[in-house]
UniProtKB/TrEMBL annotation:
Enzyme type, top EC level: transferase
Keyword Nucleotide-binding: yes
Protein name, per record: dTMP kinase
Family membership noted in the UniProt record: Belongs to the thymidylate kinase family.
Native organism taxonomy: Eukaryota, Metazoa, Ecdysozoa, Arthropoda, Crustacea
GO molecular function: ATP binding; dTMP kinase activity; nucleoside diphosphate kinase activity
Length: 149
């Protein structure tokens, strides 16, 4: 397998989000609700967990993308998470600790933490409640906001 620098990998994922931005805007203008799994916070948190990667540097390439109305972080004890399923390639408990720390550093008023150590039904109810609250706060004249601008 060919080596690709972690900076380049981060920029490729970021470029993919920028590439989709016009399509996302069009959908939002039609009042379409969009749910995204692993948007900017995820890309930054994981990239910055790698050696020689800086959180603020990773954040810069995402600056100006659309800011979500809601970010849900499924929080769980890392050892318990490890027993539930395998980590992705190159991940381990130490990396997950850094990723979690990065997520917490990126939290703002849109972020909500859901205790994911509970049953799927309980977690699902909390997620649905948070989504409904966010939807209830959106008005036809709600302006699109940008990340870190």
């Amino acid at each position: 397998m060919q080596y690709i620098d972690d900076h380049a990998i981060h920029l490729l994922f970021s470029a993919n989000r920028w590439e989709l931005l016009p399509d996302i805007k069009k959908l939002l203008q039609k009042s379409t609700n969009i749910i995204v799994d692993r948007y900017s916070n995820s890309g930054i948190a994981f990239s910055a967990a790698k050696p020689n990667m800086d959180l603020r540097w990773c954040q810069q390439s995402e600056s100006g993308l659309l800011k979500p109305d809601l970010v849900i972080f499924l929080g769980i004890d890392l050892v318990e998470a490890q027993t539930r399923g395998q980590y992705e390639r190159y991940e381990n408990l130490e990396m997950q600790k850094v990723v979690r720390s990065n997520y917490l550093k990126l939290q703002d008023e849109t972020c909500r933490v859901v205790d994911a150590s509970r049953s799927m039904e309980e977690v699902g109810r909390d997620v649905c409640r948070l989504v409904q609250e966010a939807l209830d706060n959106i008005t036809p004249d709600s302006a699109l906001k940008q990340l870190w601008i």
